[in-house]
Design a protein that fits this description.
Structural class: alpha/beta
Largest sheet: 7 strands, mixed
Radius of gyration: 19 Å
Helix content: 10-25%
Strand content: 25-35%
Length: about 300
């Protein structure tokens, strides 16, 4: 089968290559999925799990692409809840090969049914930003209606999901980003926008929840805005700053079938929109991962027409 692999961590996306690999076989509790579309974020190339296994042994050449959508073609022994021919989408284990290939083996529990009226490209764009937003807001951030939420990177793939879900839940959403992202952030649900290059972040005032995707100085300044009892949630690594009288939580997204179901239902009924920046074929994926200009939104690889 065709697959995208990485072998050189120092090379970044420039080290991504398209090769032939053996088709995978399912282990216990696995399924084989014929990939129709897969999502990719360059951040995967900074994760230790892309390069080494859980015992810190080299696992290259590895196939990235944690997000995927496709059709189940085989079931491993003991797999329940899914059937051959079923449309599915989900999130692979980051220590295993991902979806930038024609086929992948994945634990059945990491997949959810993909309704027939949701395109595979849309399905592949949902797991990472959708689950990250859901878990950050509701599990770790304990969001309540009426709260003020500061969403960094509100025009990005994760931030736009956070803004939409938070607003649907009854929060007042303040988005941040670059000046060029203002209208896109507002379109995705932010009620105010802060240009981090030109506006004063501190003018936002107190907030109940910060959803941080940036880290560094922005995270430190944001921690000072969290009111007593509030929370700073980040996916940018261990917090460098904490609210004076609140919580700072960093987390790694996890696959969750029930949450994927909640997310895709919102897409079906129009409450949630995806944020796709580029769609390319598997043959053109290497070029898509090395764009000549900044792309706002997710990069999705359409493996099959």
């Amino acid at each position: 089968m065709k697959a995208i692999v990485v072998t050189d961590q120092a090379a970044g996306t420039a080290g991504v290559t398209l090769v032939e690999r053996p088709e995978p076989r399912p282990a216990i509790n696995d399924v084989v999925v014929e990939i129709h579309a897969s999502g990719f974020t360059s951040g995967e190339l900074t994760w230790p799990s892309t390069w080494t296994d859980r015992l810190d042994r080299d696992r290259t050449p590895s196939i990235p692409g944690q997000e995927l959508a496709g059709v189940v073609t085989a079931l491993g022994y003991g797999t329940t809840g899914l059937s051959v021919g079923q449309r599915v989408f989900g999130l692979t284990d980051s220590y295993r090969d991902g979806g930038l290939a024609e086929y992948v083996t994945i634990e059945g529990r990491n997949l959810a049914p993909l309704p027939g009226d949701v395109d595979f490209t849309v399905g592949a764009s949902l797991p990472m930003p959708g689950l990250t937003a859901w878990q950050g807001l509701f599990e770790h951030g304990r969001l309540q209606a009426g709260q003020r939420v500061l969403v960094h990177g509100a025009a990005g793939s994760v931030g736009s999901m956070v803004a939409q879900l938070a607003r649907e839940f009854g929060a007042y959403v303040i988005g941040t980003g670059r000046a060029a992202d203002r209208q896109k952030a507002l379109d995705f649900g932010a009620m105010e926008f802060v240009d981090l290059e030109n506006d004063a972040l501190e003018d936002v005032g107190d907030v109940d929840l910060v959803f941080d995707v940036i880290g560094g100085d922005i995270q430190k300044r944001s921690a000072c805005l969290v009111r007593a009892g509030g929370t700073l949630v980040t996916i940018a690594g261990p917090p460098e700053a904490r609210p004076a009288d609140g919580l700072a939580i960093d987390f790694v997204v996890e696959a969750d079938r029930a949450q994927l179901g909640e997310i895709v239902q919102r897409v079906r009924d129009g409450r949630l929109r995806t944020n796709i920046g580029t769609v390319a074929t598997l043959d053109d994926a290497v070029a898509a991962f090395n764009p000549a200009e900044r792309i706002s939104g997710q990069t999705i690889i359409r493996v099959r027409p």
